[in-house]
Amino acid sequence: MNVLLFGPPGSGKGTQAKDLAAALGVPHVATGDIFRRHLKEGTELGLRAKGYMQGGGLVPDDFTCEIVASRLEEPDAGAGVLLDGFPRTAAQAEWLVRWLAKRGQRVDALVNLVVPDEVILERITGRRSCPSCGATFHVVFAPPADGRCTRCGAAVIQRDDDKDSVVANRLLTYARETVPVLPVLRPVTTIHEIPATGDVAEIRARVFAALGLS
Ligand code: AMP
């Protein structure tokens, strides 16, 4: 089963993804995580993505689709994936539909996490991330313990692209480039609009109910 987790930056895709992927029995594939891993390891791919990511813009489509294709070709992705942060442009959406069709698959569902802009800004600028294990925190709603990750103990950081100046550009990019994914996919999949403010467990329950999971 192929499910897309969709929504603006800060809508909680990463927070919801792990439980959802486990319930679906498919791997969680987040393009942002893939790019960040390459950046951290200093690979050529990371260096190519760096400038786009730091400015809050998108990595070019051909390059991004290539990376997604190689991840989807791994054996654990054969029965489907939970995609998080992809597709992010109409061209990526068209590519994905074609790529899956060649393998007799489709986008089975899209979960759109709907959050007002002012909530997003509060969430992203307060977000702190663990550079070691990827756990996320919030300075007010889920603070790290003494600035350290409660899971692995590493010092948490604010992602460069979570800083005020970059967030505005990420939201603009979302409105301009990513919202146009919806009209491409609406005719070929089921879109579930999920109000994604409030308690994390409640949002998860809404997502699970929409997909018929328990
Ligand atoms: P995220 O963690 O999903 O917010 O992604 C962080 C950054 O990685 C984005 O701001 C983009 O620069 C880049 N990125 C992630 N996914 C994509 C994608 N599907 N297409 C283009 N760029 C992406």
Topology:
Blueprint: E1 3-6, H1 13-24, E2 28-30, H2 31-41, H3 44-55, H4 61-72, E3 82-84, H5 90-102, E4 109-114, H6 117-125, E5 127-129, E6 136-138, H7 164-178, H8 181-185, E7 190-195, H9 200-211
Parallel strand pairs: 1-3, 1-4, 2-3, 4-7
Antiparallel strand pairs: 5-6
Bound molecules: adenosine monophosphate.
The site of adenosine monophosphate has 16 residues, from helix 2 and helix 3.
Provide a brief overview of the structure.
The chain is an alpha/beta fold. Helices cover 47% and strands 13% of the residues.
At the fourth CATH level, what is the homologous superfamily of the domain at 3-115 and 178-210? P-loop containing nucleotide triphosphate hydrolases
Bound molecules: adenosine monophosphate
CATH fold naming of the domain at 3-115 and 178-210: Rossmann fold
Segments where pLDDT lies below 50 for 5+ residues?
A: none
Rg (CA only): 17 Å
Give the total of beta strands. Answer: 7
Order of helices and strands: EHEHHHEHEHEEHHEH
